[in-house]
Design brief:
The complex is a heterodimer of chains A (about 475) and B (about 180).
Chain A lengths: L21 H13 L4 H27 L13 H26 L9 H22 L6 H5 L15 H34 L3 H10 L7 H34 L11 H27 L8 H32 L2 H12 L3 H13 L7 H4 L2 H28 L14 H24 L5 H11 L13
Helix pairs in contact in A: 1-16, 2-15, 3-4, 3-8, 3-9, 3-14, 3-15, 4-6, 4-15, 6-7, 6-8, 8-9, 9-10, 9-14, 10-11, 11-12, 12-14
Chain B lengths: L9 E8 L2 H13 L5 E4 L7 H5 L6 H27 L16 H24 L18 E6 L4 H10 L4 E6 L5
Antiparallel strand pairs in B: 1-3, 1-4, 2-3
Helix pairs in contact in B: 3-4
The chains are: A mainly alpha (about 475), B alpha+beta (about 180).
């Protein structure tokens, strides 16, 4: 179906298939909210809750017995705590990229996926935040240590430390992402409210919708707010992983002390986040039958982003090696040779194969458009990106400047428990989201459909067929 | 808080239109007819409607700018005062006012204050949470396009005017609360 506006779009393909009318959008998107959960949902939720239980067991043991249950040692003081933190914060970045950066670039295909991607951001950041809080050892004191407030000790936090920048960056990121997500949800909550038959349901969604009436005077301020939040979120998301990378880069540890870290971390974050979005969307469109909204065209575009960012990450790996050699610093050289061929060679090569080699299959269009292929690749990328953080954290620490203190870091079952369990926390939250919130931005999809079908007041001749 | 029907007040006249195009054209005519108060109700924002309605740009960017600037300055002052005035602490031989190290938190506070103030101002301008005025028709958040000429207005005159500018359905509306 070619329309005259095709030449104006960056993406000429049809974004909503199946000849849907506006009402069908509401019916399809609201269906999971308005019906009793399907068996498949309960199965998924059960598995997620099981993993969450493991997380709770590991965290309880950690809190009651102390850091000793983990595999942390001297000199490896960061272990899975920080590996998981960086992994989950990175996952979140794709959501903001889709919701904010693609919005500024007028990428209309984002409308089908931005809601769920933003939800993913929020739940990923929640999951991420648990790790540094627990890493403090006594999370119930963390608020007293991390925030600047007048206290009896008359001491302030150290504003020159990147760890403190992280506190501000991640908490700002969480707050702004949450607000951005909520603002986007307001018109859709109103739609759910106006469909509601049940009184309690209506009251809840009336409160959530803030009494939205769809008035054009409201739309005017609403759209401006949305644009401003997108504009603010764009540098914010880049700053967050930049600052996370500063945690490493401002130290003097070989393998961490490098200027490539900020862009390398941001590219890696987008890479892993897009992989997670693909994993979630492939499941979601299957379970809720959203195939007309989240089309193969959408998924293909995301796979292209995965391949592009995967190659950026691959370039960063190569560049690090080159600079380690070129710098002439024996410590740098040792660290990188040790990284690839030392005791953690298996982690390094898992990372390289999953992140650099496997996504190359997306050069083939058939692979980009094949659901099983992209699902498997996205899982591999998630594994690879987890190992990237593991490699960065562990290989740089386990052999420090003093060979007598070298020690092999082995995660314990508690480490693996809260790593696995954190997926339970994330998926349990996500599954609750798909039950109670509209997972596709209905008002935005309608706007895009209107332009595609030339309902809009553009003066163009309707060209169907 | 439910209003009995007898207490409902006449709020205006609503006209439904077949599509966004018709709504924009009708809006131009309503605006030219110089009614004191009118608004459109649509399921998604319609481009060109703001101009037809004669709405000027939203003042929100100024709020963002002012709040962002405040956040940036507060961020600097907080860090300067705690690091160089209240308890000067020598960290690695850096100057007390080591401003480049303060930039990340200044930036984060710029975004935080700018973003939150923008949303707060949007809520204020839009009258959220709106508990006084109920939506006229559940279809307006689904697929219907409507134009409301609000009171004070002559009921029958407004009804016939809306019909004249192309409304497919016209009726009077009354104020109602949500709860």
């Amino acid at each position: 179906m070619a329309t005259p506006s095709d030449s104006l779009h960056f993406t000429p393909d049809v974004l909503v298939t199946g000849g849907k009318a506006f009402k069908d959008v509401d019916d399809d998107v609201c269906h999971p909210l308005e019906s009793f959960p399907m068996r498949r949902w309960w199965v998924c939720f059960g598995v997620a809750c099981f993993a969450l239980l493991i997380w709770l067991i590991a965290v309880t043991a950690f809190v009651t017995q102390g850091q000793g249950v983990l595999g942390l040692n001297q000199p490896s003081g960061w272990g899975t705590d920080i590996t998981n933190f960086v992994f989950w914060v990175g996952i979140g970045h794709a959501g903001t990229l889709i919701s904010a950066i693609l919005f500024l670039f007028r990428q209309k295909w984002r409308t089908a996926i931005n809601r769920s991607a933003e939800a993913m951001t929020i739940f990923a950041v929640i999951t991420a935040l648990t790790f540094p809080l627990l890493h403090t050892g006594r999370p119930w004191y963390a608020a007293f240590w991390l925030f600047p407030y007048p206290n009896q000790r008359h001491l302030w936090v150290n504003f020159r430390s990147p760890l403190l920048w992280d506190v501000f960056a991640v908490s700002t990121y969480f707050t702004i992402s949450l607000v951005f997500w909520y603002v986007g949800l307001i018109p859709d909550f109103a739609t759910v409210r106006d469909r509601a038959k049940n009184k309690i349901r209506k009251a809840i969604y009336t409160l959530l919708s803030m009494g939205w009436r769809g008035s054009n005077k409201n739309w005017l301020h609403y759209e401006t707010t949305y644009l401003i939040l997108a504009g603010l979120s764009t540098p914010l998301v880049l700053s967050v992983h930049t600052i996370v990378s500063f945690d490493f880069a401002t130290s003097v540890i070989p393998g961490w002390h490098t200027t490539i870290f900020p862009p390398y971390f941001v590219a890696g974050a987008i890479f892993s986040g897009f992989a997670m979005v693909v994993t979630l969307l492939v499941i979601m469109r299957e379970v809720f039958n959203f195939k007309n909204y989240i089309t193969l065209g959408h998924l293909e575009k995301m796979n292209k982003v995965i391949m592009a960012t995967g190659m950026m990450v691959g370039y960063a790996y190569a560049c690090e090696f080159f600079i380690a050699w070129y710098s002439g610093s024996p410590f740098e050289r040792f660290t990188f040779i040790n990284r690839a061929f030392g005791p953690y060679w298996w982690a390094y090569w898992t990372m390289t194969s999953c992140n650099v080699i496997i996504p190359q299959i997306f050069w083939f269009r058939a692979a980009r458009r094949s659901i099983p292929v992209m699902f498997v690749v996205s899982l591999f990328v998630n594994i690879g990106m987890w190992f990237e953080r593991y490699v960065i954290v562990v290989t740089s620490l386990h052999r420090d400047f003093l060979p007598s203190s070298w020690k092999y870091y082995i995660p314990t079952w508690y480490d693996w428990g809260w790593t696995f369990g954190s997926f339970g926390l994330f998926f349990a939250l996500f599954l609750l989201f798909v039950r109670f919130f509209p997972t596709i931005a209905m008002s935005e999809v309608k706007g895009v459909m209107a332009q595609e079908n030339n309902h809009g007041p553009s003066g163009e001749v309707p060209a169907h067929g | 808080m439910a209003n009995p029907k007898s207490e409902r007040q006449f709020a205006g006249v609503i006209g439904y239109f077949a599509g966004a195009d018709q709504l924009v054209q009708a809006m131009r005519k309503v605006r030219e007819a110089k009614y004191s108060s009118f608004d459109a109700f649509t399921p998604y924002p319609i481009h060109g409607l703001d101009a037809a309605q004669g709405l000027s740009r939203s003042p929100l960017p100024f709020v963002t700018f002012a709040a962002g600037l405040t956040g940036c300055c507060l961020g600097f002052l907080l860090q300067y005062w705690t690091s160089a005035v209240d308890w000067p602490l020598n960290v690695g031989g850096k100057p007390f006012n080591s401003w480049p190290a303060f930039v990340p938190i200044m930036f984060e506070l710029t975004v935080l204050l700018g973003g939150l103030s923008t949303v707060a101002a949007m809520f204020l301008l839009n009258g959220f949470p709106n508990i006084r005025k109920k939506i006229f028709d559940p279809g307006l958040t689904r697929d219907r396009f409507a134009l409301v000429i609000e009171a004070p207005v002559e009921e029958s005159e407004a009804q016939s005017f809306l019909k004249k500018v192309g409304a497919t359905e016209v009726k009077s509306v009354y104020t109602e609360g949500w709860f």
